[in-house]
Design brief:
The structure is a single chain. The chain is of the alpha/beta class and 704 residues long. Among the domains are: 126 residues, no CATH class; 244 residues, Alkaline Phosphatase, subunit A (3-Layer(aba) Sandwich), CATH 3.40.720.10; 86 residues, no CATH class. 58% of the residues lie in helices and 7% in strands. The chain has 29 helices and ten strands. The protein has an eight-stranded mixed beta sheet, with helices on both faces. Strand 4, helix 8 and strand 5 form a beta-alpha-beta unit. Helix 26 runs antiparallel to helix 28. The longest helix is centred in the C-terminal third of the chain and has 42 residues. It is globular, with a radius of gyration of 36 Å. About 3% of the residues have low confidence. InterPro entries: Alkaline_phosphatase_core_sf, Phosphodiest/P_Trfase, PIG-G_N, PIGG/GPI7. This is GPI ethanolamine phosphate transferase 2 isoform X6. Keywords: Endoplasmic reticulum, GPI-anchor biosynthesis, Membrane, Transferase, Transmembrane, Transmembrane helix.
Length: 704
């Protein structure tokens, strides 16, 4: 089938768009969710029923709140080593003292990628795991409709005040009694963006008409984006945050009531990499500090231990219990037990039972075979043991047996919560691998067909033959169609969760399989034709025996290698290194090709020498036939013109030889101008030298 190159390219583009759409549909699946919040049942489960007739638990409501006022201070891009490392001891002395010797619990919260602000806020307030599609809507931040802590607090009559990043205002509209949002896109602003939050503190801390205060500071994140985590600006900003935390903590302690204490929560939405960016999964980006500070906790004593690691989604469940609210229905987080460790055994068991009941209900709504899940089985065992404990408790048994059994039941609940959370995390963030694989196969087939057609498509004739018609009537095509349809049936009938490609009609699925088979047969036909043409005898021996030069092979191999390298995050972070290698290799190959054409080919090719000799002979014969008498002066002018033309040819030759080396030198200078990426971003470069030079110049001007 003969097609013009434009028609062929347009067809390939449409098929490529189909493959990309299938891949993106699998990579950005519809998230697994529970019922909408307006349909959520408000009733809370009662305690497990004790065995035996006539025994019923009298605790059927949600437990009362544990804290009176809660202040959440979210410091954007706060890494764990900024608090628990050397920077924390140097620039945050008050926070370090509270962590080491005060009434607090400290943890390292692990955030799941993507580590950008809006998905992290969703994870903190809903307890769910947002997907990569939330990165796309991060710029718009539409209102959050699923069940979340802010909505539950608003429904319970809690008065909430917010100051900071306006992403919260967009996610939770009409939820705050008072708010002042600051934009996060002026990354060069380190001061005003935080001063606009702090200026409200003195007035708000004196008031009593609020229950929850949320502060979101952006200055540290802006510093990271501009100059990285090792910037000299990080220290003063951490000291500023430490003073703010000191002011809030002292104010909360001074206004505590005898009945309920207050709680201060310090956390980060994400960290930052060694270059100051975020969004990936490096250790600096996913690990953030999580501090609970309250007079309700026991004062720390003994040597300082390494902070325990928890999930960022655990905060939603813990705050819900602390505020006496229902746990968000979509939460996959676990209750952080030390926060409620000061309560009685019955209260602790009640808290973990509520958490386990919510997780098991979410598992039931999202997994058909939920009864076979290990976490669900462990929860039912723990719930039965809990009922036996309640029976002993209601009978008035206060012996050591009751305490030991309570500890055993608590341990069973914690194991069940951990297993349930793990199962749900896989369910909530499950990718449609089958749709991704089908889309990837289509994309790679079209790419390979385009690469095989490049020599003809770029020729002077903008028309070439597409090797597609013969394979459509071959036995191989029908065999591939049958095989792919069989694979499709096996995958769709054995998959535990229904994928998008399996939900399509059978006619559409068979059409996609026929397309894949046709593309594969076309590729095989094109490859066979290339090998067939390479074996045919050449009419002109002076022409190279291969239509592919070394440069063509290098460009093809480099393109395929670069595409394959994008399958690993480490290669994406250091993609410039791949381009450095490919450009340097291409320049060296070009230099070798020019040397061969300008020196080796002219000296070693006898056909070239014969042609030159015949040209001189014909020139002499022409002069004899016309009886031209060339004077001596004219001969000298002719010699000068000949030498001038030879000089020009020689200069062009040396310029062409020098060009690749000039490009190599320029590339090396560009590499030294500014170090980028992740692995070598900290190494000195020409940009750092210019910055230091300008800084020294400014200091000199200031002196004089």
């Amino acid at each position: 089938m003969r097609l013009r190159s434009g028609v062929f390219a347009s067809t390939c583009l449409l098929v490529q768009a189909l493959g990309v759409a299938l891949f993106l549909r699998g990579f950005f699946p519809v998230p697994v969710r529970s019922l909408p919040r307006r349909e959520a049942r408000a009733d809370s489960p009662a305690e497990p029923a004790p065995p035996g007739p006539g025994m019923v638990s009298n605790w059927t409501k949600i437990p009362a709140p544990l804290f009176n006022k809660v202040v959440v201070v979210l410091i954007d891009a706060l890494r764990d080593d900024f608090v628990f490392g050397s920077k924390g001891k140097q620039f945050m002395p008050y926070t370090t003292q509270v962590v080491e010797k005060g009434t607090s619990y400290s943890f390292v919260a692990e955030a799941k990628p993507p580590t950008v602000t809006m998905p992290r806020i969703k994870a903190l307030m809903t307890g769910s795991i947002p997907g990569f599609i939330d990165v796309v809507v991060n710029l718009n931040s539409p209102a959050l409709l699923e069940d979340n802590l802010i909505w539950q607090a608003k429904a319970a009559g809690k008065r909430i005040i917010f100051y900071g990043d306006d992403t919260w205002v967009k996610l939770f509209p009409k939820h705050f009694m008072e708010y002042d949002g600051t934009t996060s896109f002026f990354v060069s602003d380190f001061t005003e963006v935080d001063d606009n939050v702090t200026r409200h503190l003195d007035r708000v801390l004196k008031r009593e008409d609020w229950d929850i205060l949320i502060l979101h500071y952006l200055g540290l994140d802006h510093i990271g984006h501009i100059s990285g985590p090792n910037s000299p600006l990080v220290g003063p900003k951490l000291r500023e945050m430490d003073n703010i935390l000191k002011k809030i903590h002292i104010s909360l302690l001074s206004k505590e009531e005898a009945s309920l204490p207050n709680l201060l929560v310090v956390c980060g939405d994400h960290g930052m990499s060694e270059t100051g960016s975020h969004g990936g999964s490096s250790e600096g980006e996913v690990h953030t500090p999580l501090l609970f500070i309250s007079s309700a906790f026991e004062k720390r004593s003994g040597p300082l231990t390494q902070p325990e690691r928890v999930q960022q989604t655990d905060l939603a469940s813990t705050l819900a219990v602390g505020l006496g609210l229902p746990i968000s229905r979509n939460s996959v987080g676990n209750l952080i037990l030390p926060v409620v460790g000061g309560k009685t055994m019955r209260e602790q068991l009640r808290f973990v039972h509520l958490n386990g009941f919510q997780l098991s209900r979410l598992l039931q709504e999202n997994t058909p075979a939920y009864e076979k899940d290990p976490g669900y089985e462990h929860f039912k065992i723990a719930e039965k043991s809990h009922g036996n404990w309640i029976k002993l408790y209601l009978e008035g048994n206060n012996s050591e047996i009751l305490l030991n059994l309570g500890k055993k039941v608590l341990k069973q609940y914690l194991e069940a919560l951990k297993t349930l959370s793990s199962s749900l995390s896989k369910q909530v963030a499950q990718y449609d691998m089958y749709s991704m694989m089908v889309g990837t196969v289509i994309i790679m087939e079209v790419l390979l067909l385009l690469l095989l057609s490049v020599p003809k498509a770029l020729s002077k004739r903008a028309e070439f033959e597409v090797p597609l018609s013969p394979p459509l009537f071959s036995l191989l095509f029908y065999l591939m169609c049958l095989m792919l349809c069989a694979v499709h049936v096996i995958v769709c009938t054995s998959a535990e969760s229904l994928c998008y490609f399996c939900s399509m009609s059978w006619l559409t699925a068979v059409g996609v399989m026929m397309l894949i088979s046709a593309l594969m047969c076309g590729i095989l036909s094109a490859v066979a034709k290339i090998f067939e043409n390479s074996r045919l005898p050449l009419k002109n021996p002076a022409v190279s025996s291969s239509s592919w030069s070394e440069i063509d092979v290098l460009i093809l191999a480099g393109t395929i290698g670069h595409v394959l390298s994008l399958g690993a995050s480490s290669f994406i972070e250091e993609e410039h290194q791949t381009w450095y290698f490919l450009i340097n290799t291409l320049c060296l190959v070009l230099c070798q090709e020019l040397c061969r054409n300008n020196f080796l080919l002219k000296e070693c090719d006898p056909q070239h020498s014969t042609n030159v000799k015949q040209n001189f002979d014909s020139l002499g014969e022409t002069s004899d036939c016309k009886n031209i008498d060339i004077p001596a002066a004219d001969n000298s002018k002719l010699d000068k013109a000949t030498s001038s033309s030879e000089f020009m040819k020689g200069s062009h030759k040396w310029i062409s030889l020098a060009t690749p080396w000039v490009i190599l030198i320029c590339c090396r200078l560009l590499r030294s101008l500014n170090q980028t990426g992740v692995q070598w971003a900290h190494r000195p470069d020409f940009g750092h030298w210019l910055t230091r030079l300008l800084t020294c110049g400014w200091k000199t001007e200031g002196i004089f």
